[in-house]
Design brief:
The protein contains ten helices and eight strands. The protein is an alpha/beta fold. It has a single domain, classed as Arginase, Chain A. Helix 7 links the parallel strand 4 and strand 5. The longest helix is centred in the first third of the chain and has 24 residues. It is globular. The termini are close together. The structure holds zinc ion. The site of zinc ion has 6 residues, from loops.
Length: 298
């Protein structure tokens, strides 16, 4: 039975008309999975993260100001959402979802969160729709386990995992790999343990060859005990933000490769859906569904 993490709040956020964040997609993915006859018993519901717990990892002043609505306008503009209580509840629940997913992955081998991949969140500021870095928190959560000494964050979203790279820079137990569009946001990149910047218009063959190369290098150099996988679909050819030309079949092949490798090497994997910004929600949900197909959820 698959182990999936979802909360209705993932899709609950009042945004200005024409805001480019596709808030409906999370519920859309859940509904599409139910239509594929995935049992509702497979879904786990996270509870909000405790603010005191994350303040030990992040800058406490940033967390305090974020949660109480005291960040200045410039800081909120960088995040890209208007502040609301709902935004904070959603953020803390979404990040908790990835932490829960990482625990389920250790217990069952693999687990998937129907949100996650808030990789532009730094210790003391948010950016690009990201406020709390769930990937890094999940990595730290996995490291609490006796059997886990090293965690690999394998980030295939079209945007560089800059916040994760910076948070993990001085942590020898968390390794970051980012495969992204070189011309995509963020324009000032951070240094991951391994970075692969792809040119505009890169297609399936080169993309998949890069994913395989990145994976082999990561396994050889870092020898991780567990994997956190950001399966962003903003690499897709129809994405409104991504500059790559990856087909739906290419996305499926990428995700199948990652799950197959983890299974072969006996590595627990916690996957998150990552970014994806087509305005056509049904089309977007279909691309995100490839991750669940690759994981054998349906
Ligand atoms: Zn992205």
């Amino acid at each position: 039975m698959p182990h999936l993490v979802f909360h209705p709040i993932y899709s609950q956020l009042d945004l200005p008309v024409r805001h480019r964040f596709p808030i409906q997609k999370y519920q859309g993915i859940k509904d599409a999975l139910l239509r594929e006859n995935v049992s509702s018993d497979c879904f786990y519901e996270p509870e909000q993260l405790n603010i005191n717990a994350i303040s030990r990892i992040y800058d406490p002043l940033y967390i305090k100001q974020l949660c109480s609505g005291e960040l200045d306008q410039k800081a909120m503009r960088r995040i890209g959402f208007p502040w609301s209580k709902q935004l904070i509840e959603r953020t803390l629940t979404a990040a908790a979802g990835t932490v829960l997913t990482s625990s389920l992955a250790l217990e069952h081998g693999k687990a998937l969160n129907l949100t996650g991949g808030y990789h532009h969140a730094f210790a003391n500021f948010g950016s690009g729709f990201c406020m709390v870095n769930d990937l890094y928190l999940a990595a730290l959560n996995m490291l609490q386990s006796k059997s886990i000494d090293k965690v690999l964050v394998f980030d295939c979203d079209v945007h560089q995992g800059d916040g994760t790279a910076k948070l993990a820079a001085n942590n020898n137990a968390v390794y970051t790999v980012s495969i992204h569009g070189e011309k995509n946001f963020p324009h000032r990149k951070q240094v991951s343990d391994l970075d692969f910047g792809l040119a505009k218009g890169t297609g399936d063959d080169e993309f998949l060859a890069t994913v395989e190369q990145a994976w082999q290098m990561a396994i050889t150099y870092f020898q991780p005990d567990a994997v956190i996988y950001d399966a962003g679909v903003d690499v897709h050819i129809d994405d409104d933000l991504g500059h790559l030309n990856i087909t739906t079949e290419g996305v499926l092949a990428r995700d199948q490769f990652v799950f197959a490798q983890c299974e072969k090497q006996g590595l627990p994997i916690a996957a998150v859906i990552g970014g994806g910004y087509q305005r056509d929600i049904d089309a977007l949900v279909n691309v995100h569904m490839q991750l669940f197909k690759a994981a054998g959820v349906f």
